């Protein structure tokens, strides 16, 4: 469920009083030419079909954004995705499993190192830089074949995965 800050709730109340009609926030997700997602926030009159303070663009936007937090700061609304990554060991020491609360992809993907160029640059550069041999993505699971994982490599990979997920791409493919 999307977390809405008290300041954001107060701003919705202020807009409702100003207009003399109960308002909701309309959340829309748009991708730019490079595929990076932006959350657009606007006001609309509350209708009978609205429940709560938010009206979603569509069900997929609701699914994606409902894990995050909406805040009102310095006169603007901001969306924070609140991404969690959990590294898990597997029976094979060279295979690392990462589970996220956000989906990496909608369809299963398996790629070996020579195919990494097909992925978004943030993923492709990370995988090559850290010496990853293969990647498997399915839903919120990412499995990496990486010999000699170190704490430093894990931190760098985590940072890049967080950047990828917080960019709200529609898919991991370079288009």
Please outline what is shown here:
The protein is built from four helices and eleven strands. By secondary structure, the protein is α+β, with helices and mostly antiparallel strands.
Topology as H/E string? EHEEEHEEEEEHEEH
Bulk shape: elongated
Count up the helices.
4
Low-confidence stretches: none
Relative strand content: 35-45%
Nearest-angstrom radius of gyration? 19 Å
Widest beta sheet: strand line-up: 7-8-11-10-9
Kindly describe this structure.
The protein is α+β, with helices and mostly antiparallel strands and 175 residues long. 26% of the residues lie in helices and 36% in strands. The strands form 3 sheets. Strands 7-8-11-10-9 form a 5-stranded antiparallel β-sheet, with no helix packed on it. It has a 3-stranded mixed β-sheet with strand order 1-5-6. A hairpin with a 2-residue loop joins strand 5 and strand 6 (76-80). The longest helix is centred in the C-terminal third of the chain and has 16 residues, at 151-166.
């Amino acid at each position: 469920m999307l977390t809405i800050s008290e300041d954001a709730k107060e701003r919705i109340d202020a807009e409702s009083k100003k207009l003399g009609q109960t308002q909701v926030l309309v959340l829309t997700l748009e991708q730019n030419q490079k595929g990076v997602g932006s959350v657009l926030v606007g006001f609309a009159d509350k209708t009978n079909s609205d429940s709560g303070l938010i009206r979603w663009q569509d069900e997929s936007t609701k699914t994606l954004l409902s894990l995050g937090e909406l805040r009102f700061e310095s006169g603007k609304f901001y969306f924070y995705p609140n991404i969690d990554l959990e590294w898990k060991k597997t029976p094979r020491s060279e295979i690392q499993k990462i589970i996220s609360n956000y989906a990496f992809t909608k369809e299963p993907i398996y790629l070996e190192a020579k195919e990494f160029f097909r992925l978004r640059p943030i993923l492709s550069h990370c995988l090559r830089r850290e010496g990853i041999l293969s990647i498997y993505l399915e839903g919120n699971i990412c499995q990496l074949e990486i010999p000699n994982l170190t704490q430093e490599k894990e931190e760098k990979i985590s940072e890049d995965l967080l950047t990828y997920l917080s960019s709200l791409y529609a898919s991991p493919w370079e288009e």
